Amino acid sequence: MTEKTLAIIKPDAVKKKVVGKIIQRIEDEGFEIRSMKMLHLTKEEAKGFYIVHKDKKFYNSLTDFMSSGEIVVMLLEQENAIAHWREVMGATDPALATPGTIRHGFGFSVERNAVHGSDGQATAEWEINYFFKE
Ligand code: UDP
Ligand code: MG
């Protein structure tokens, strides 16, 4: 049984021109890219996507950042896709991420950490629906 997850290449990584490298890594890790688009979120769209974090101190800054430029949103599919993509991304704080992970390689700070990935089946379904509603 395969699983689906939502991946986002965040504005910091798009500005650094590492979109190609990140997509290559996704393919090298065996994920199927089922859908993909480039978007520039409004502040309101970024707030909606990160609504689970609405009470966190970092919510306003995070949603400013996520609406600051183009992002690439992808629907990935593979066996164990959710956990595998989080493993390839690395820890939220790039300074704590394992060498070889995307956040270790391309992240700049705990906020500007290059990529997003869903953290469980329910959130994956909700996040996929947020961007790829059919
Ligand atoms: N974030 C932040 N400050 C923090 C923790 C998180 O700016 O102290 C940002 C960061 O961009 C992170 C996102 O908020 O990727 C969502 O946080 P979460 O804890 O869900 O981390 P993730 O699931 O992305 O690893
Ligand atoms: Mg999260």
How would you explain this protein's 3D organization?
By secondary structure, this protein is of the alpha+beta class. The protein has a single domain (2-39, 72-131), classed as Nucleoside diphosphate kinase-like domain (Alpha-Beta Plaits, 2-Layer Sandwich), CATH 3.30.70. 41% of the residues lie in helices and 19% in strands. The chain contains seven helices and four strands. The model has no long low-confidence stretch (mean pLDDT 98). The site of uridine-5'-diphosphate has 8 residues, from loops.
CATH topology (level 3) name? Alpha-Beta Plaits
pLDDT < 50 stretches: none
Termini separation: 22 Å
CATH architecture descriptor text = 2-Layer Sandwich
User: How many domain regions?
Assistant: 1
Helicity level, as a percent range? 40-55%
Which molecules are bound in this entry? Answer: uridine-5'-diphosphate, magnesium ion
- Which strand order spans the largest sheet, edge to edge or round the barrel? 2-3-1-4
The first-level CATH class is given as Alpha Beta
Largest sheet: 4 strands, antiparallel
Question: Cα-atom Rg, whole angstroms?
Answer: 14 Å
